[in-house]
Fold:
Amino acid sequence: MSTILVCDDNILVAEQYAYDLRRLGDHQVQVVGSGAAALDVLSRDAVDCVVLDLEMPGMDGFGVLQAMRERGLAVPVIVYTGTGSYDRCADAIRRGASAFIDKEEPVERVAREIELAIERRRMLDEIAMLRRYADDESALLGSSPAMRAFKDAIARVAPIPSAVLIMGESGSGKELVAREVHRLGANPREPFVAVNCAALPEHLVESELFGHERGAFSGAIAQRKGAFESAGRGTLFLDEIGDLPLAAQAKLLRVLEERVVVRLGSTRGVAVPARVVAATNRDLDADVRSDRFRKDLYFRLNVHILRVPPLRDRLSDLPDLVARLLATTCDRFRCRPKRLGTSVLPLLMAYDWRQNNVRELRNVVERMVIASDGDTIGPEHVPLEVRDEGASRVAAPASIGRTFLERKAEAERQIIIAALDRHDWHVTRAAQDLELADHASLLKIMRRHGLTRSSAA
Ligand SMILES: Nc1ncnc2c1ncn2[C@@H]1O[C@H](COP(=O)(O)OP(=O)(O)OP(=O)(O)O)[C@@H](O)[C@H]1O
Ligand SMILES: [Mg+2]
Structure:
Protein backbone atom coordinates (compact mmCIF):
# COMPACT_ATOMS: atom_id res chain seq x y z
CA MET A 1 0.00 0.00 0.00
CA SER A 2 1.29 3.46 -0.81
CA THR A 3 0.68 6.72 0.99
CA ILE A 4 -0.30 9.69 -1.13
CA LEU A 5 -0.54 13.29 -0.07
CA VAL A 6 -2.89 15.59 -2.00
CA CYS A 7 -2.33 19.31 -1.54
CA ASP A 8 -4.80 21.88 -2.87
CA ASP A 9 -6.10 25.07 -1.28
CA ASN A 10 -9.48 24.09 -2.68
CA ILE A 11 -10.11 21.31 -0.23
CA LEU A 12 -13.06 19.98 -2.23
CA VAL A 13 -10.84 19.29 -5.23
CA ALA A 14 -8.29 17.58 -2.97
CA GLU A 15 -11.00 15.48 -1.32
CA GLN A 16 -12.33 14.41 -4.71
CA TYR A 17 -8.87 13.20 -5.77
CA ALA A 18 -8.49 11.42 -2.46
CA TYR A 19 -11.84 9.71 -2.86
CA ASP A 20 -11.08 8.56 -6.41
CA LEU A 21 -7.58 7.40 -5.59
CA ARG A 22 -8.76 5.36 -2.62
CA ARG A 23 -11.39 3.82 -4.86
CA LEU A 24 -8.94 2.97 -7.63
CA GLY A 25 -5.99 1.52 -5.82
CA ASP A 26 -4.45 0.30 -2.64
CA HIS A 27 -3.71 3.87 -1.56
CA GLN A 28 -3.82 5.60 1.74
CA VAL A 29 -4.52 9.26 0.97
CA GLN A 30 -3.99 12.33 3.14
CA VAL A 31 -5.32 15.75 2.24
CA VAL A 32 -3.87 19.16 3.14
CA GLY A 33 -4.95 22.66 2.17
CA SER A 34 -1.65 24.56 2.00
CA GLY A 35 1.98 24.27 0.99
CA ALA A 36 3.16 24.72 4.57
CA ALA A 37 0.89 21.92 5.78
CA ALA A 38 2.21 19.67 3.01
CA LEU A 39 5.80 20.26 4.13
CA ASP A 40 4.80 19.54 7.69
CA VAL A 41 3.39 16.15 6.76
CA LEU A 42 6.37 15.39 4.51
CA SER A 43 8.85 16.05 7.28
CA ARG A 44 6.88 13.89 9.68
CA ASP A 45 5.39 10.97 7.80
CA ALA A 46 6.58 8.54 5.17
CA VAL A 47 4.80 9.66 1.99
CA ASP A 48 5.28 7.84 -1.33
CA CYS A 49 3.91 10.46 -3.71
CA VAL A 50 2.56 14.01 -3.61
CA VAL A 51 -0.19 15.37 -5.86
CA LEU A 52 0.28 19.12 -5.79
CA ASP A 53 -1.71 22.12 -6.98
CA LEU A 54 0.64 24.75 -8.39
CA GLU A 55 -1.66 27.71 -7.66
CA MET A 56 -2.17 28.30 -3.96
CA PRO A 57 -2.13 31.40 -1.79
CA GLY A 58 0.91 31.73 0.48
CA MET A 59 3.44 29.08 -0.42
CA ASP A 60 2.48 27.87 -3.88
CA GLY A 61 3.44 24.60 -5.56
CA PHE A 62 6.75 26.00 -6.78
CA GLY A 63 7.59 27.01 -3.22
CA VAL A 64 6.82 23.49 -2.03
CA LEU A 65 9.03 21.96 -4.74
CA GLN A 66 11.88 24.25 -3.78
CA ALA A 67 11.54 23.62 -0.05
CA MET A 68 11.45 19.88 -0.71
CA ARG A 69 14.65 20.13 -2.67
CA GLU A 70 16.33 22.18 0.05
CA ARG A 71 15.32 19.67 2.68
CA GLY A 72 16.41 16.70 0.61
CA LEU A 73 12.89 15.22 0.45
CA ALA A 74 13.05 12.88 -2.52
CA VAL A 75 9.32 12.06 -2.70
CA PRO A 76 7.98 12.18 -6.29
CA VAL A 77 5.58 15.04 -6.98
CA ILE A 78 2.84 15.18 -9.58
CA VAL A 79 1.60 18.70 -10.29
CA TYR A 80 -1.47 20.26 -11.85
CA THR A 81 -2.72 23.79 -12.38
CA GLY A 82 -6.21 25.15 -12.11
CA THR A 83 -5.54 27.26 -15.17
CA GLY A 84 -4.30 24.33 -17.22
CA SER A 85 -1.19 26.29 -18.19
CA TYR A 86 1.18 23.93 -19.97
CA ASP A 87 4.13 26.32 -19.54
CA ARG A 88 3.81 26.41 -15.78
CA CYS A 89 3.64 22.62 -15.63
CA ALA A 90 6.72 22.32 -17.83
CA ASP A 91 8.46 24.77 -15.51
CA ALA A 92 7.51 22.62 -12.51
CA ILE A 93 9.04 19.56 -14.22
CA ARG A 94 12.28 21.50 -14.63
CA ARG A 95 12.15 22.19 -10.90
CA GLY A 96 11.91 18.58 -9.98
CA ALA A 97 8.27 17.48 -10.39
CA SER A 98 7.94 13.97 -11.82
CA ALA A 99 4.92 14.52 -14.03
CA PHE A 100 1.95 16.82 -14.55
CA ILE A 101 -1.70 16.11 -15.03
CA ASP A 102 -4.70 18.03 -16.21
CA LYS A 103 -7.65 18.49 -13.90
CA GLU A 104 -9.92 17.51 -16.78
CA GLU A 105 -8.27 14.17 -17.25
CA PRO A 106 -9.87 10.94 -16.07
CA VAL A 107 -8.64 10.02 -12.63
CA GLU A 108 -7.49 6.63 -13.93
CA ARG A 109 -4.67 8.39 -15.72
CA VAL A 110 -3.79 10.28 -12.56
CA ALA A 111 -3.60 6.99 -10.68
CA ARG A 112 -1.40 5.55 -13.43
CA GLU A 113 0.98 8.53 -13.22
CA ILE A 114 1.21 8.07 -9.48
CA GLU A 115 2.04 4.41 -9.79
CA LEU A 116 4.67 5.12 -12.43
CA ALA A 117 6.25 7.84 -10.28
CA ILE A 118 6.35 5.59 -7.21
CA GLU A 119 7.76 2.71 -9.22
CA ARG A 120 10.44 4.97 -10.69
CA ARG A 121 11.38 6.23 -7.23
CA ARG A 122 11.65 2.63 -5.97
CA MET A 123 13.89 1.72 -8.86
CA LEU A 124 16.13 4.73 -8.24
CA ASP A 125 16.41 3.80 -4.57
CA GLU A 126 17.24 0.26 -5.49
CA ILE A 127 19.89 1.33 -7.99
CA ALA A 128 21.40 3.65 -5.39
CA MET A 129 21.46 0.80 -2.89
CA LEU A 130 23.01 -1.67 -5.34
CA ARG A 131 25.57 0.90 -6.34
CA ARG A 132 26.45 1.49 -2.71
CA TYR A 133 27.10 -2.19 -2.23
CA ALA A 134 28.92 -2.58 -5.53
CA ASP A 135 31.15 0.41 -4.72
CA ASP A 136 31.58 -0.42 -1.10
CA GLU A 137 35.28 -1.05 -0.80
CA SER A 138 34.64 -2.62 2.51
CA ALA A 139 31.85 -5.17 2.11
CA LEU A 140 32.64 -7.84 4.66
CA LEU A 141 35.56 -9.89 3.33
CA GLY A 142 36.85 -13.18 4.60
CA SER A 143 36.38 -16.88 4.09
CA SER A 144 38.36 -18.21 7.03
CA PRO A 145 36.41 -20.71 9.14
CA ALA A 146 35.95 -18.05 11.83
CA MET A 147 34.59 -15.60 9.32
CA ARG A 148 32.36 -18.15 7.62
CA ALA A 149 30.81 -19.12 10.93
CA PHE A 150 30.41 -15.45 11.74
CA LYS A 151 28.70 -14.70 8.43
CA ASP A 152 26.33 -17.61 9.09
CA ALA A 153 25.52 -16.06 12.47
CA ILE A 154 24.78 -12.72 10.76
CA ALA A 155 22.51 -14.38 8.22
CA ARG A 156 20.62 -16.10 11.03
CA VAL A 157 19.87 -13.00 13.09
CA ALA A 158 19.46 -10.48 10.26
CA PRO A 159 15.83 -11.31 9.36
CA ILE A 160 14.70 -11.23 13.01
CA PRO A 161 13.31 -7.82 13.97
CA SER A 162 14.67 -7.84 17.53
CA ALA A 163 17.70 -5.86 18.65
CA VAL A 164 21.21 -7.11 17.91
CA LEU A 165 24.38 -6.32 19.81
CA ILE A 166 27.66 -6.38 17.91
CA MET A 167 30.74 -6.79 20.06
CA GLY A 168 34.27 -6.62 18.82
CA GLU A 169 37.62 -4.96 19.18
CA SER A 170 38.35 -1.59 17.73
CA GLY A 171 38.65 -1.66 13.93
CA SER A 172 37.39 -5.21 13.62
CA GLY A 173 34.53 -4.22 11.32
CA LYS A 174 31.55 -3.63 13.63
CA GLU A 175 30.06 -0.95 11.43
CA LEU A 176 30.40 -3.13 8.35
CA VAL A 177 28.67 -5.90 10.24
CA ALA A 178 25.82 -3.57 11.16
CA ARG A 179 25.39 -2.67 7.50
CA GLU A 180 25.42 -6.34 6.62
CA VAL A 181 22.68 -7.02 9.19
CA HIS A 182 20.67 -4.24 7.55
CA ARG A 183 21.35 -5.51 4.03
CA LEU A 184 20.23 -9.03 4.91
CA GLY A 185 17.37 -7.77 7.07
CA ALA A 186 13.69 -7.53 6.29
CA ASN A 187 13.82 -3.97 4.92
CA PRO A 188 17.15 -3.34 3.19
CA ARG A 189 15.66 -0.57 1.08
CA GLU A 190 14.61 1.43 4.09
CA PRO A 191 17.13 3.84 5.66
CA PHE A 192 20.21 2.80 7.63
CA VAL A 193 20.78 5.55 10.19
CA ALA A 194 23.99 5.49 12.22
CA VAL A 195 24.46 7.41 15.47
CA ASN A 196 27.78 7.44 17.26
CA CYS A 197 26.81 7.66 20.92
CA ALA A 198 30.37 8.53 21.94
CA ALA A 199 30.69 11.47 19.57
CA LEU A 200 27.61 13.35 20.79
CA PRO A 201 27.75 15.92 23.57
CA GLU A 202 25.66 14.66 26.47
CA HIS A 203 23.04 17.40 26.19
CA LEU A 204 22.36 16.57 22.54
CA VAL A 205 22.12 12.79 22.75
CA GLU A 206 18.44 12.63 23.52
CA SER A 207 17.37 15.16 20.93
CA GLU A 208 19.51 13.35 18.35
CA LEU A 209 17.89 10.01 19.13
CA PHE A 210 14.34 11.01 19.93
CA GLY A 211 13.93 14.40 18.21
CA HIS A 212 12.57 17.62 19.62
CA GLU A 213 9.79 20.12 19.13
CA ARG A 214 10.53 23.70 18.31
CA GLY A 215 11.52 25.56 21.50
CA ALA A 216 11.99 22.36 23.54
CA PHE A 217 15.30 23.82 24.76
CA SER A 218 17.35 26.88 23.92
CA GLY A 219 18.81 26.27 20.49
CA ALA A 220 15.85 24.18 19.32
CA ILE A 221 14.81 26.70 16.70
CA ALA A 222 12.95 24.22 14.55
CA GLN A 223 11.22 20.95 15.08
CA ARG A 224 13.47 18.00 14.39
CA LYS A 225 12.94 14.31 13.88
CA GLY A 226 15.22 12.05 15.87
CA ALA A 227 17.29 9.20 14.52
CA PHE A 228 14.64 6.67 15.56
CA GLU A 229 12.05 8.34 13.38
CA SER A 230 14.48 8.93 10.52
CA ALA A 231 15.27 5.24 10.37
CA GLY A 232 11.62 4.53 9.56
CA ARG A 233 11.20 0.82 9.03
CA GLY A 234 14.92 0.45 8.40
CA THR A 235 17.80 0.11 10.85
CA LEU A 236 19.01 2.39 13.60
CA PHE A 237 22.68 1.69 14.30
CA LEU A 238 23.77 2.84 17.76
CA ASP A 239 27.53 2.78 17.61
CA GLU A 240 29.58 2.85 20.83
CA ILE A 241 26.44 2.13 22.84
CA GLY A 242 28.58 1.72 25.96
CA ASP A 243 29.16 5.47 25.95
CA LEU A 244 25.50 6.40 26.06
CA PRO A 245 24.81 8.57 29.12
CA LEU A 246 22.74 6.86 31.82
CA ALA A 247 19.72 9.16 31.43
CA ALA A 248 19.56 8.37 27.72
CA GLN A 249 19.96 4.67 28.50
CA ALA A 250 16.76 4.77 30.55
CA LYS A 251 14.86 6.45 27.72
CA LEU A 252 16.29 4.09 25.14
CA LEU A 253 15.09 1.13 27.16
CA ARG A 254 11.58 2.56 27.26
CA VAL A 255 11.57 3.14 23.51
CA LEU A 256 12.77 -0.41 22.87
CA GLU A 257 10.00 -1.74 25.06
CA GLU A 258 7.17 0.44 23.83
CA ARG A 259 8.33 1.04 20.26
CA VAL A 260 7.18 4.64 20.61
CA VAL A 261 9.23 7.85 20.92
CA VAL A 262 8.13 11.12 22.40
CA ARG A 263 10.11 14.06 21.05
CA LEU A 264 11.60 16.38 23.64
CA GLY A 265 9.05 19.07 24.39
CA SER A 266 6.17 16.97 23.13
CA THR A 267 3.62 14.73 24.75
CA ARG A 268 2.57 12.90 21.64
CA GLY A 269 4.11 9.49 20.96
CA VAL A 270 5.23 8.47 17.47
CA ALA A 271 5.50 4.79 16.55
CA VAL A 272 9.05 3.76 15.66
CA PRO A 273 9.27 0.40 13.92
CA ALA A 274 13.05 0.63 13.18
CA ARG A 275 15.19 -2.37 14.11
CA VAL A 276 17.99 -1.47 16.49
CA VAL A 277 21.54 -2.67 16.05
CA ALA A 278 24.03 -1.59 18.70
CA ALA A 279 27.79 -1.98 18.78
CA THR A 280 30.51 -1.65 21.35
CA ASN A 281 34.14 -2.48 21.91
CA ARG A 282 33.71 -2.13 25.66
CA ASP A 283 33.20 -4.93 28.12
CA LEU A 284 29.55 -4.24 28.87
CA ASP A 285 29.47 -6.96 31.53
CA ALA A 286 32.05 -5.01 33.48
CA ASP A 287 30.24 -1.73 32.79
CA VAL A 288 27.06 -3.24 34.23
CA ARG A 289 28.94 -4.34 37.31
CA SER A 290 30.36 -0.89 37.84
CA ASP A 291 26.96 0.76 37.22
CA ARG A 292 28.12 2.54 34.09
CA PHE A 293 25.61 0.65 32.00
CA ARG A 294 22.05 -0.24 32.91
CA LYS A 295 21.57 -3.91 33.49
CA ASP A 296 18.00 -3.95 32.14
CA LEU A 297 19.09 -2.28 28.91
CA TYR A 298 21.97 -4.73 28.59
CA PHE A 299 19.56 -7.65 28.94
CA ARG A 300 17.32 -6.09 26.35
CA LEU A 301 20.19 -5.78 23.89
CA ASN A 302 22.17 -8.93 24.47
CA VAL A 303 19.59 -11.47 23.30
CA HIS A 304 21.37 -11.71 19.96
CA ILE A 305 25.07 -11.05 20.15
CA LEU A 306 27.39 -11.03 17.16
CA ARG A 307 31.03 -11.23 18.21
CA VAL A 308 33.30 -10.06 15.42
CA PRO A 309 36.38 -12.26 15.25
CA PRO A 310 39.53 -10.18 15.58
CA LEU A 311 41.96 -10.28 12.69
CA ARG A 312 44.59 -12.28 14.57
CA ASP A 313 42.09 -15.14 14.94
CA ARG A 314 41.53 -15.31 11.22
CA LEU A 315 44.91 -14.71 9.71
CA SER A 316 44.01 -16.78 6.68
CA ASP A 317 41.78 -13.86 5.63
CA LEU A 318 44.74 -11.52 5.55
CA PRO A 319 45.95 -12.18 1.97
CA ASP A 320 42.48 -11.44 0.53
CA LEU A 321 42.06 -8.38 2.72
CA VAL A 322 45.45 -7.02 1.71
CA ALA A 323 44.74 -7.64 -1.98
CA ARG A 324 41.43 -5.81 -1.77
CA LEU A 325 42.83 -2.95 0.31
CA LEU A 326 45.77 -2.61 -2.06
CA ALA A 327 43.48 -2.39 -5.09
CA THR A 328 41.10 0.13 -3.52
CA THR A 329 43.91 2.24 -2.08
CA CYS A 330 45.75 2.50 -5.41
CA ASP A 331 42.45 3.32 -7.03
CA ARG A 332 41.74 6.02 -4.49
CA PHE A 333 45.22 7.51 -4.82
CA ARG A 334 44.94 7.27 -8.60
CA CYS A 335 48.20 5.40 -8.89
CA ARG A 336 49.04 2.31 -10.94
CA PRO A 337 48.07 -0.97 -9.26
CA LYS A 338 50.90 -2.24 -7.06
CA ARG A 339 51.68 -5.76 -5.97
CA LEU A 340 53.36 -7.18 -2.91
CA GLY A 341 56.85 -8.62 -3.07
CA THR A 342 56.96 -12.24 -1.88
CA SER A 343 58.51 -11.51 1.50
CA VAL A 344 55.93 -8.91 2.53
CA LEU A 345 52.94 -11.10 3.24
CA PRO A 346 54.79 -13.27 5.79
CA LEU A 347 55.75 -10.09 7.66
CA LEU A 348 52.15 -8.94 7.74
CA MET A 349 50.95 -12.39 8.76
CA ALA A 350 53.37 -12.44 11.68
CA TYR A 351 52.31 -9.08 13.05
CA ASP A 352 49.92 -9.13 15.97
CA TRP A 353 47.16 -6.73 14.73
CA ARG A 354 46.10 -6.26 18.31
CA GLN A 355 45.55 -2.52 18.33
CA ASN A 356 43.16 -1.77 15.53
CA ASN A 357 42.57 -4.92 13.52
CA VAL A 358 41.46 -4.37 9.92
CA ARG A 359 41.61 -0.59 10.29
CA GLU A 360 45.26 -0.90 11.29
CA LEU A 361 45.85 -3.18 8.30
CA ARG A 362 44.20 -0.63 6.05
CA ASN A 363 46.45 2.11 7.39
CA VAL A 364 49.52 -0.06 6.94
CA VAL A 365 48.58 -0.80 3.33
CA GLU A 366 48.07 2.90 2.73
CA ARG A 367 51.48 3.71 4.17
CA MET A 368 53.14 1.03 2.06
CA VAL A 369 51.50 2.37 -1.10
CA ILE A 370 52.77 5.86 -0.32
CA ALA A 371 56.24 4.66 0.64
CA SER A 372 56.87 2.70 -2.54
CA ASP A 373 57.65 4.39 -5.86
CA GLY A 374 57.61 1.41 -8.18
CA ASP A 375 54.99 -1.22 -8.89
CA THR A 376 56.21 -3.60 -6.24
CA ILE A 377 56.01 -3.17 -2.49
CA GLY A 378 59.03 -4.65 -0.80
CA PRO A 379 59.84 -5.38 2.86
CA GLU A 380 61.59 -1.99 3.06
CA HIS A 381 58.21 -0.31 2.56
CA VAL A 382 56.57 -2.13 5.44
CA PRO A 383 56.17 0.23 8.43
CA LEU A 384 58.93 -0.24 10.94
CA GLU A 385 56.87 -1.46 13.87
CA VAL A 386 55.24 -4.13 11.71
CA ARG A 387 58.54 -5.12 10.16
CA ASP A 388 60.30 -5.41 13.50
CA GLU A 389 57.61 -7.45 15.13
CA GLY A 390 57.03 -9.50 12.01
CA ALA A 391 60.70 -10.13 11.42
CA SER A 392 61.25 -11.22 14.97
CA ARG A 393 58.59 -13.83 14.47
CA VAL A 394 59.18 -14.96 10.90
CA ALA A 395 62.19 -17.19 10.51
CA ALA A 396 63.46 -14.75 7.93
CA PRO A 397 67.01 -13.51 7.32
CA ALA A 398 66.32 -10.57 9.63
CA SER A 399 65.89 -12.96 12.51
CA ILE A 400 69.24 -14.64 12.06
CA GLY A 401 71.16 -14.13 15.23
CA ARG A 402 68.23 -14.95 17.47
CA THR A 403 68.52 -18.05 19.50
CA PHE A 404 67.39 -21.39 18.22
CA LEU A 405 64.96 -21.73 21.10
CA GLU A 406 63.28 -18.41 20.32
CA ARG A 407 62.86 -19.33 16.69
CA LYS A 408 61.55 -22.76 17.60
CA ALA A 409 58.99 -21.24 19.95
CA GLU A 410 57.87 -18.83 17.27
CA ALA A 411 57.51 -21.59 14.70
CA GLU A 412 55.42 -23.53 17.21
CA ARG A 413 53.21 -20.51 17.78
CA GLN A 414 52.60 -20.10 14.05
CA ILE A 415 51.75 -23.79 13.64
CA ILE A 416 49.27 -23.64 16.50
CA ILE A 417 47.58 -20.48 15.22
CA ALA A 418 47.27 -21.93 11.72
CA ALA A 419 45.72 -25.16 13.04
CA LEU A 420 43.28 -23.30 15.27
CA ASP A 421 42.36 -21.00 12.41
CA ARG A 422 41.70 -24.02 10.16
CA HIS A 423 39.28 -25.40 12.74
CA ASP A 424 37.51 -22.21 13.69
CA TRP A 425 39.41 -22.22 16.99
CA HIS A 426 37.81 -25.51 17.96
CA VAL A 427 40.50 -26.72 20.36
CA THR A 428 39.66 -30.42 20.29
CA ARG A 429 39.60 -30.59 16.50
CA ALA A 430 42.79 -28.58 16.17
CA ALA A 431 44.45 -30.91 18.70
CA GLN A 432 43.39 -33.93 16.64
CA ASP A 433 44.67 -32.29 13.48
CA LEU A 434 48.03 -31.71 15.15
CA GLU A 435 47.97 -35.28 16.42
CA LEU A 436 48.34 -34.16 19.99
CA ALA A 437 47.25 -36.47 22.81
CA ASP A 438 44.15 -34.48 23.73
CA HIS A 439 42.74 -31.00 23.82
CA ALA A 440 44.28 -30.31 27.23
CA SER A 441 47.75 -30.65 25.70
CA LEU A 442 46.88 -28.04 23.13
CA LEU A 443 45.40 -25.76 25.75
CA LYS A 444 48.65 -25.98 27.67
CA ILE A 445 50.68 -24.94 24.63
CA MET A 446 48.20 -22.15 23.89
CA ARG A 447 48.57 -20.86 27.43
CA ARG A 448 52.31 -20.88 27.08
CA HIS A 449 52.00 -18.64 24.04
CA GLY A 450 49.35 -16.44 25.57
CA LEU A 451 46.83 -17.53 22.93
CA THR A 452 43.16 -17.34 23.78
CA ARG A 453 40.18 -17.41 21.58
CA SER A 454 38.98 -13.86 21.98
CA SER A 455 35.92 -14.45 19.89
CA ALA A 456 33.22 -17.03 19.50
CA ALA A 457 30.81 -16.59 16.65
N1 LIG B 1 35.83 -8.21 7.10
C1 LIG B 1 36.20 -7.04 6.53
N2 LIG B 1 36.32 -6.98 5.20
C2 LIG B 1 36.70 -5.84 4.61
N3 LIG B 1 36.96 -4.71 5.26
C3 LIG B 1 36.85 -4.71 6.57
C4 LIG B 1 36.46 -5.88 7.29
N4 LIG B 1 36.42 -5.59 8.58
C5 LIG B 1 36.77 -4.30 8.70
N5 LIG B 1 37.03 -3.76 7.49
C6 LIG B 1 37.46 -2.37 7.24
O1 LIG B 1 38.19 -1.96 8.36
C7 LIG B 1 37.87 -0.62 8.73
C8 LIG B 1 37.32 -0.59 10.13
O2 LIG B 1 36.03 -1.18 10.16
P1 LIG B 1 34.85 -0.58 11.06
O3 LIG B 1 34.85 0.88 11.02
O4 LIG B 1 33.60 -1.30 10.68
O5 LIG B 1 35.37 -1.10 12.48
P2 LIG B 1 34.75 -0.88 13.93
O6 LIG B 1 34.77 -2.21 14.58
O7 LIG B 1 33.45 -0.18 13.81
O8 LIG B 1 35.85 0.03 14.60
P3 LIG B 1 35.73 1.04 15.90
O9 LIG B 1 35.59 0.18 17.11
O10 LIG B 1 37.01 1.77 15.87
O11 LIG B 1 34.53 1.88 15.65
C9 LIG B 1 36.88 -0.13 7.70
O12 LIG B 1 37.59 0.54 6.68
C10 LIG B 1 36.30 -1.40 7.16
O13 LIG B 1 35.87 -1.21 5.85
MG1 LIG C 1 32.96 1.69 14.50
In short: The radius of gyration is 28 Å. The chain has three domains: 2-130, 145-309, 312-448. The first helix runs from residue 11 to 24. The pocket of magnesium ion (ligand 2) is lined by residues 174-175, 239 (CB under 6 Å).
